[in-house]
């Protein structure tokens, strides 16, 4: 649910503004007119650099590019001087030279020696991601192309990876793992028990959504073994989605989905010879259904596994090590919290594998540490009253770790660095005069980075920088025209302000209406998310017209960052909501908007509306039901009405189980407060939502009917959590919302 909460932005199509520039500023309604024309698009159309893949030398990067004739080729660029070299010409991507049919890669990956390339094509979505398709191997020396998995169903291969010596490729198909010898072109299934309920080498729905797990196997350092996850979904509750629109008789999508407090899949890890044979299962202690194994990697170049295990409440993350062929399973380290801990996704090894990096909140702030290989020593790499948001690079040769932080403004992001074996002092690297958010795609050697800077008023500036000086070498994209178009529109930009909830100061932004008159009072639409997985108050370029379009209609658009949101304001800020998701958020939203109205008399407290998607939809309901005197109109989209209906990993992370925290689930679920509804409420949900099930909407509707409450509802047949599928869907969705606001929350100053 909560990783998709910002997919509403993804629904908005970027549309190029008039090429002839902006009309005369004397045309009073120009801005409103343009915004109306582009209500579901973009204000301007900034350009972005194509995604790059850094080469191991840290001096070059790879891109897929399209030639004038439409054919793809793969090229490299020098970070230093942008010199270009064709690495794989279009002719080498011809699957059938006679017909001229070219492989169109969705993704590529290289063997360790760069001599062979895996080409992923003809892809299909598995839930959210394109992880299933066809794979080809290209030998760069001979130009030979070979399709993997011949005889297996089309587009059924997943996660193909070269062995360390590139003599073999392993992949998953139909829940089994295969190894294919590139010399003999023979294939062997090294697991054979995969079926609808036994999943080898990949994951069930909940591991993908909440732990980001899809690729479920790893080659050992010597290439002789493969370690993998196996999930047994039998015993897990299965959910059905009924498709009534694609045929005259309904079809049913049937998949395992463990709801809060119910039975999880049994997940274990083991290893098997690349030649096949019996799997050795690692005897990690704990019930396989009541512990999680979200991360497993080999220590680079070795046969030693490094495994992270969480207990079901996610209070602890234990690190286990095990060596292929040896009986040496050890618990070397444990990180714990009275609320929840996170997975560690950027573990790096130092000093010949004597230390590894680890992120922890154990001192009240999220910091980077180094931990000895035996787990006995843990030393701060970063220190201070601030959160490390993200680790973006590590160069052991220079002795620095690079990371994103924002000690003084939670809405912004900057690059810092600290010595790996220093005293914890941190040094600002980004240009402090560029206030906003800085993002870096750093090379493996930390000598170069693609740097992107933007803020709410500045379109993305994308450039190549050299390090350690962070000196800009050249612009990769020229967005000066887009910036000029944005500036000439004369719209009201986001204004960042502070509001109070009791003694607590909250970050917020607001957009004033076009032709704003401070002597009048205007209605407000609050855009809320409010849950621990994301944040909405960020000083970064959005590009979305929707908020600006609402402002052009005569609304003040506001977003308030309540307690518990994923803002870099320390452990207590994020985790004070443990066991009480939904209660503090709605309280902060209500107090926050009333405080904003006290600061700015032009806010009409009789016309306050609120809307949100996914977790934001849940908070919209909580606000409407709990604070009906504050919130007069609401639109809740793809919402969780009853927290027991959402999945185990997400909901229990922040709430524990319903069995252990019945009062918290009762208080936090908006369905239990439905009798408080007084205002105008619109419910929007997709019936094909595999994430937040349409069941939530139906149960809430039942409850509202029982309570005699009037409401409005629009259901989108077989649309997923994004409500984006099907011709005309996005236009219809936004038009429905616009009409509801205009009817029940009258626009304009009074």
Short recap of the structure:
With 750 residues, this protein is an alpha+beta fold.
Q: What is the CATH H-level superfamily of the largest domain?
A: Alpha/Beta hydrolase fold, catalytic domain
* Number of E strands: 45
Highest-level CATH class of the largest domain: Alpha Beta
The helix count comes to 12
Largest pleated sheet: 8 strands, mixed
| CATH architecture grouping of the largest domain | 3-Layer(aba) Sandwich
Question: Residue ranges: pLDDT <50 for 5 or more in a row?
Answer: 1-30
Strand order of the largest sheet: 38-39-41-40-42-43-44-45
- How far is the first residue's CA from the last residue's CA? 39 Å
**Overall spatial form:** globular
What is the CATH topology of the largest domain? Rossmann fold
Rg? 27 Å
Q: Level of helix content?
A: 10-25%
Oligomer category: single chain
Q: Mean pLDDT, nearest integer? A: 92
Number of domains: 3
């Amino acid at each position: 649910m909560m990783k998709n909460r910002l997919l509403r932005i993804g629904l908005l199509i970027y549309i190029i503004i008039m090429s002839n520039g902006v009309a005369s500023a004397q045309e009073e309604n120009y801005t409103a007119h343009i915004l109306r024309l582009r209500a579901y698009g973009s204000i301007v159309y900034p350009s972005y650099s194509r995604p790059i893949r850094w080469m191991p030398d840290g001096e070059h990067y790879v891109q897929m590019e399209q030639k004038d004739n439409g054919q793809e080729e793969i090229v490299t660029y020098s970070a230093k001087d942008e010199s270009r070299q064709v690495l794989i010409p279009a002719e080498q991507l011809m699957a059938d030279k006679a017909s001229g049919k070219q492989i169109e890669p969705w993704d590529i990956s290289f063997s360790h020696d760069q001599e062979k390339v895996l080409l992923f094509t003809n892809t299909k979505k598995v839930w959210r991601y394109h992880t299933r398709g066809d794979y080809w191997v290209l030998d760069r020396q001979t130009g030979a192309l070979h399709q993997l998995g011949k005889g297996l169903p089309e587009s059924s291969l997943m996660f193909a990876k070269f062995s360390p010596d590139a003599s073999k490729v392993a992949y998953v198909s139909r829940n089994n793992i295969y190894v294919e010898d590139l010399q003999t072109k023979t294939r062997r299934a090294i697991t054979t028990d995969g079926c609808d309920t036994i999943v080898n080498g990949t994951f069930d729905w909940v591991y993908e959504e909440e732990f980001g797990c899809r690729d479920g196997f790893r080659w050992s350092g010597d290439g002789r073994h493969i370690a993998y996850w196996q999930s047994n979904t039998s015993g897990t509750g299965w959910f059905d989605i009924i498709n009534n629109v694609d045929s005259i008789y309904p079809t049913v999508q049937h998949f395992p989905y463990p709801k809060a407090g119910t039975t999880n899949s049994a997940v274990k890890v083991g290893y098997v010879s690349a030649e096949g044979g019996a799997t050795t299962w690692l005897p990690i202690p704990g019930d396989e259904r009541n512990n999680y194994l979200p991360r497993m990697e080999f220590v680079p170049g070795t046969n030693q596994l490094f495994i992270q295990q969480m207990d079901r409440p996610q209070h602890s993350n234990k690190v286990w090590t095990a060596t292929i062929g040896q009986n040496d399973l050890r618990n070397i380290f444990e990180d714990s919290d009275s609320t929840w801990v996170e997975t560690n996704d950027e573990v790096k090894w130092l000093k010949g594998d004597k230390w590894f990096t680890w992120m922890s909140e154990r001192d009240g702030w999220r910091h980077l540490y180094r931990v000895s290989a035996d787990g006995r020593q843990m030393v701060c790499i970063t220190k201070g009253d601030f959160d490390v948001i993200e680790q973006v690079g590590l160069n052991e040769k220079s002795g620095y770790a690079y990371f994103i932080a924002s000690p003084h403004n939670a809405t912004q992001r900057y690059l810092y660095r600290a010595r790996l074996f220093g005293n914890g002092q941190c040094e600002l690297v980004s240009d402090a005069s560029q206030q906003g958010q800085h993002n870096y795609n750093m090379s493996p050697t930390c000598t170069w980075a693609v740097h992107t800077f933007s803020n709410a008023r500045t379109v993305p500036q994308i450039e190549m920088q050299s390090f350690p000086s962070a000196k800009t070498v050249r612009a990769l994209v020229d967005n000066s025209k887009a910036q000029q178009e944005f500036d000439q529109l004369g719209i009201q930009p986001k204004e960042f302000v502070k509001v109070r909830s009791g003694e607590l100061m909250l970050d917020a932004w607001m957009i004033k209406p076009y032709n704003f008159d401070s002597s009048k009072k205007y209605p407000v639409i609050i855009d809320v998310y409010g849950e621990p997985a994301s944040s909405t108050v960020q000083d970064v370029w959005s590009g979305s017209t929707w908020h600006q379009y609402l402002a052009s209609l005569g609304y003040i658009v506001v977003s308030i960052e309540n307690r518990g949101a994923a803002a870099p304001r320390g452990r207590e800020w994020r985790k004070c909501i443990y066991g009480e998701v939904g209660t503090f958020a709605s309280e902060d939203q209500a107090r926050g908007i009333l405080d904003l109205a006290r600061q700015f008399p032009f806010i009409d407290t009789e016309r306050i509306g609120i809307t949100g998607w996914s977790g934001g939809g849940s908070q919209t309901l909580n606000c409407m039901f709990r604070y009906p005197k504050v919130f007069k109109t609401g639109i809740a989209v793809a919402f969780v009405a009853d927290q027991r209906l959402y999945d185990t990993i997400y909901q229990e992370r922040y709430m524990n189980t319903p069995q252990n925290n019945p009062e918290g689930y009762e208080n936090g679920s908006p369905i239990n407060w439905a009798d408080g509804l007084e205002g105008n409420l619109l419910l929007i949900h997709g019936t094909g939502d595999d994430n937040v099930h349409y069941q939530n909407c139906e149960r809430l509707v039942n409850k509202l009917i029982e309570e005699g409450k009037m409401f409005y509802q629009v259901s989108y047949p077989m649309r997923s959590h994004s409500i984006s599928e099907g011709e005309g869907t996005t236009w219809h969705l936004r038009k429905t919302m616009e009409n509801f606001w205009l009817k029940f929350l009258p626009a304009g100053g009074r």
